[in-house]
Amino acid sequence: MDKIKLEIAGLSYSQTQSGAYALVLAETGGKRQLPIIIGGFEAQAIAIELEKMTPTRPLTHDLFKNFAVSFSIEVKEVVIYNLIEGIFFAKLICERDGQVTEIDARTSDAIAIGVRFNCPIYTFENILSSAGILLDEETGNEFDSDSLEDDEGDDSKDSINQVSIEELEVQLDEAIQNEDYELASKIRDEINKRIS
């Protein structure tokens, strides 16, 4: 099975989950994006490395890198290899003295370590096709995320059920344009549920 290379496209604060962030990975040379909800600590660890900031004391992921380098272990790549009930599974592919070892990790931790080693991030077609969002560059409409919530402010899932697939596809494009990846993910899941 061929691996698909991903790049970090963005990191934004989650508007629906307090303390959570949306890490957006984009398909290299493609139009699909993979939004992953991660915790605040991991988001900070990724952002600090991407911005080339140096904390006064090493963060946990910096400690891992220092430990690995001290023992001549190189992290070669991050592979997001599974998706079960909305949870992504990842592994670090490491090498020492020509011996390759795979280490299971939370996706957010794997990426936080991967950016420190400047290594590529990969996934597989089945994950990208089931959880990825197609980026439509032509859509530029403003989107009101409240349009999927009912009057009592309940979860948007009930309102999504009342919208046609065509309307959902329009709302999905608008959510992506507004970088509301959590809402886009919910809409994508509803579309997939209806067409499967």
Description:
The structure is a single chain. The chain is of the alpha+beta class and 196 residues long. The protein has 2 domains: 3-131, Bifunctional nuclease domain (Roll); 138-195, no CATH class. Helix content is 36%, strand content 32%. The protein is built from 7 helices and 8 strands. A hairpin with a 4-residue loop joins strand 2 and strand 3.
Provide keyphrases for this structure:
single chain; 196 residues; alpha+beta; Bifunctional nuclease domain; 2 domains; eight-stranded mixed sheet; 7 helices; 8 strands; 36% helix
Strand order of the largest sheet: 6-5-4-7-1-2-3-8
Averaged pLDDT, please? Answer: 82
What gyration radius follows from the Cα positions, in whole Å? 18 Å
- Portion in helices: 25-40%
Number of domains: 2
Return the CATH topology of the largest domain: Bifunctional nuclease domain
**Can you summarize the main beta sheet?**
8 strands, mixed
Look at the helices and sheets and give the structural class: alpha+beta
Shape: globular
Please report the distance between the alpha carbons of the first and last residues. 23 Å
- pLDDT < 50 runs, ≥5 residues: 138-158
